[in-house]
Design brief:
Bound molecules: acetoacetyl-coenzyme A
Helix content: 40-55%
Order of helices and strands: HHHHHHEEEEEEEHEEHHHH
Mean pLDDT: 98
Low-confidence stretches: none
Oligomer: single chain
Largest sheet: 4 strands, antiparallel
Length: 379
């Protein structure tokens, strides 16, 4: 067993850290306050290769392994979790699924610009009445011979307002249940495709989250991903990888908050000495550090299994549930270590605590991750 990162992986980590510190940090609070999408920074992420990291270079990607992707996401999430989710969705939920299940023509037309960062994508599974219960799709894609007619509403779509390309899950044949669901590529600007309201969120406020509406939207059959009825499995398989990305985002939030708390504890004095010299604070720091390391190794294991071509549903679910709960706990402790300063915006940790909460909800709630794990160990 080797715990060392390769030269290439260390270089990716450093490049992501450098980008996050130089380009994301200075106005992270401002973007959070005004829910401002980091347009300029997303463009730069594309140019630096962070939006299609694992895609084959033949389609404009970086051809990197999942560990490198996790390392980059952690560094970006340490500074700005909103930028991290924009990146995670494009890499894991959009590019990965297109590369694995798309046709040659779909890869040329859609994957290439997405991997190069010339276009941005979103993944549309959740609906007003179908979140955890993802097979209950109300959006329909009625078969009209050479095309589908799509009707319905998708909710809480990350990158919903800024995406050029949407991967949309919809029910074609209700009698077939989840085997009658399809995944379709729908371009922004297609008639009947309307971007709905932007959500005013607790955290990850500078990522744009929208509802999307489809009204008699005509989608060519050429834009179906995989065989007829494969859409639900496409969504589930794609989410397995997405969960590694969100786990890495959670890890970044936790380690960013921990590093801030550690630094602050060495500077702030109380009762005549730095608070880091009080055991009450030392024990908090020790627990934060230990939990972060445990989360890190669960994530690396899931990423390793994915790269080895093994089944990684269970390890991705374990990584996500653990890392997201660690992120919530660590950020709460980081606010506590900062005391009153932790409760105001300037010190970043209150933003991190708000950002952490969503990692327990999206791409499968903690309850869904436990369900996936329980089914796997009991099968
Ligand atoms: N990979 C491939 N196929 C899978 C799979 C996986 N990981 N998991 C299940 N399947 C297949 C099953 O084999 C089954 O197929 P067969 O019947 O042919 O064998 C089919 O899918 C249905 O599976 P289940 O019977 O297990 O389905 P279920 O109704 O019990 O639901 C669930 C399973 C795990 C609860 C699933 O519905 C789920 O993951 N729900 C959560 C959805 C979710 O994560 N939503 C997040 C929204 S996306 C988002 O947040 C994006 C964003 O913008 C950030």
């Amino acid at each position: 067993m080797n715990f060392d990162l390769s030269e290439e992986q260390l270089a990716v980590q450093e490049a992501a850290r450098d980008f996050a510190e130089k380009e994301l940090l200075h106005d992270a609070i401002e973007r959070d306050t005004h829910s401002k999408f980091p347009e300029k920074q997303v463009k730069m992420m594309g140019e630096l290769g962070f939006l299609g990291m694992m895609v084959d270079p033949a389609y404009g990607g970086g051809g990197m392994d999942t560990i490198s992707y996790v390392l980059a996401l952690e560094e970006i999430a340490k500074i700005d979790a909103s930028a991290a989710v924009i990146m995670s969705v494009n890499n894991s939920l959009v590019c990965w699924g297109l590369e694995k299940y798309g046709t040659q023509a779909q890869k040329e037309k859609y994957l290439k610009p997405l991997a190069l960062g010339e276009k941005l994508g979103c993944f549309c599974l959740s609906e007003p009445e179908a979140g955890s219960d993802a097979t209950s799709q109300k959006t329909t894609a009625i078969d009209k011979g050479d095309h589908y007619l799509v009707n319905g509403t998708k909710n809480w779509i990350t990158n919903g307002g800024s995406s050029d390309i949407a991967l949309v899950i919809a029910q074609t044949d209700a009698d077939k249940g989840h085997r009658g669901i399809n995944a379709l590529i729908i371009e922004k600007g297609t008639e009947g495709f309307v971007v709905g309201k932007k959500e005013d969120k607790m955290g990850i406020r500078s990522s744009d989250t929208h509802s999307l509406m489809f009204s008699d939207t005509k989608v060519s059959k050429e834009n179906r991903i995989g065989d007829d009825g494969h859409g639900f499995k496409f969504a589930m398989g794609t989410l397995d990888g997405g969960r590694i990305g969100i786990a890495a985002q959670a890890l970044g939030i936790a380690s960013g908050a921990y590093e801030r708390a550690l630094q602050y504890s060495k500077e702030r004095k109380a009762f005549g000495k730095e608070i880091s010299r009080h055991q009450a604070i030392q024990f908090k720091l020790a627990d934060m550090h230990t939990k972060i390391e445990a989360a890190r190794f669960l994530i690396y294991k899931a990423a390793f299994e994915k790269d080895q071509g093994r089944n990684y549903s269970e390890s991705a679910a374990m990584a996500k549930v653990y890392a997201s709960e660690v992120a919530m706990w660590v950020t709460t402790q980081a606010v506590q270590v900062h005391g009153g300063y932790g409760y105001v915006k300037e010190y970043h940790v209150e933003r991190m605590m708000r950002d952490a909460k969503i990692t327990e909800i999206y791409e499968g709630t903690s309850e869904i991750q436990r369900l996936v794990i329980a089914r796997s160990i009991l099968k």
